[in-house]
Design brief:
binds D-glutamic acid; 2 domains; Rossmann fold; 4-stranded parallel beta sheet; 7-stranded mixed beta sheet; alpha/beta; 11 helices; 42% helix
């Protein structure tokens, strides 16, 4: 039987990770859960995020969803709650965290930038990631919630607001020595082409999507052998608030009140 892989994010950002995983494992059963009632997670406190993720696990268990792998396709949620969440459930969890290590290896100027949400930037997890993986590289930190909103809007409208994006990047004023920009939020790959053209090729971008797909594959080896491209199953979608047209990637969205699964 095919595995059930659930991809979680606060909004549509996790679709950028889901696409990578689905390319490698087209036969798996997928569900996508977005906690858009609390979007943006980047402005939430650590305890709130932990509570929501524990509620998500409670929801999975109470509904007997038989999730084989839970992918936390949200840097903010992973850097805030991974450690606690892993103690709370036996479901294997793959967390998306900023690609600091490969960025530091790629940089020739030894100056990289991390662009993420405010919560990711201030998290202890991120600080540790930086100290562990970028000893001889300076990591410049930038946060934005505006870019999350622009990615959401661009996703649903199939059109990115270039002027608003340029204004935000202008305001962020990334250090001119930076040659690699880590897209440390799963919403940002949606804007990657537009971001690259803003910097006219001076800055390369990197995200964690492909590394996460490889990690999921390493847990699901038997799926790779039997993979037949094009044999995709319908996506089960859940959201905690209504969305643009209550559809995601062509599937209807089931609305869930996650507060019912929260423990006080
Ligand atoms: N997609 C989420 C991330 O990777 C954050 C978006 C939000 O702030 O809700 O951090």
């Amino acid at each position: 039987m095919s595995s059930h892989i659930m991809v979680f994010d606060s909004g549509i950002g996790g679709t950028t990770v889901f696409e990578h995983i689905q390319q490698h494992l087209p036969n798996a059963n997928y569900s996508y859960f977005m906690d858009n009632a609390l979007l943006p997670y980047g402005e939430q406190g650590k305890q709130t995020i932990i509570k929501r993720l524990c509620a998500l696990v409670e929801f999975i268990e109470q509904r007997n969803l038989a999730v084989d792998i839970l992918v936390i396709a949200c840097n903010t949620a992973s850097t805030s709650a991974l450690d606690v969440l892993r103690q709370f459930t036996t479901i294997p969890i793959v967390g998306v965290v900023p690609a600091i290590k490969p960025a530091a290896e790629l940089s020739t100027t030894h100056h990289i930038a991390l662009l993420a949400t405010p919560a990711t930037i201030v998290s202890d997890y991120t600080k540790k990631l930086i100290t562990t993986h970028s000893a001889s590289t300076t990591v410049h930190l930038y946060s934005s919630v505006r870019l999350v909103a622009l990615a959401e809007q661009g996703f649903y409208k199939h059109n990115i607001d270039q002027v608003a994006l340029s204004n935000e990047l202008q305001a962020l004023a990334i250090d001119p020595r930076v040659d690699i920009l880590v897209l440390g939020c799963t919403h940002f790959p949606i804007l990657a082409t537009a971001i690259s053209s803003f910097y006219q090729g001076r800055i390369g971008t990197i995200d964690s999507g492909s590394a996460i797909a490889k990690r999921v594959m390493s847990i699901q080896k038997e799926q790779v052998e039997s993979a037949i491209a094009g044999n995709k199953k319908p996506l089960q979608c859940y959201a905690t608030a209504s969305t643009f047209n209550n559809q995601l990637l062509g599937s209807d969205i089931n609305q869930v009140d996650l507060t019912l699964y929260e423990k006080s």
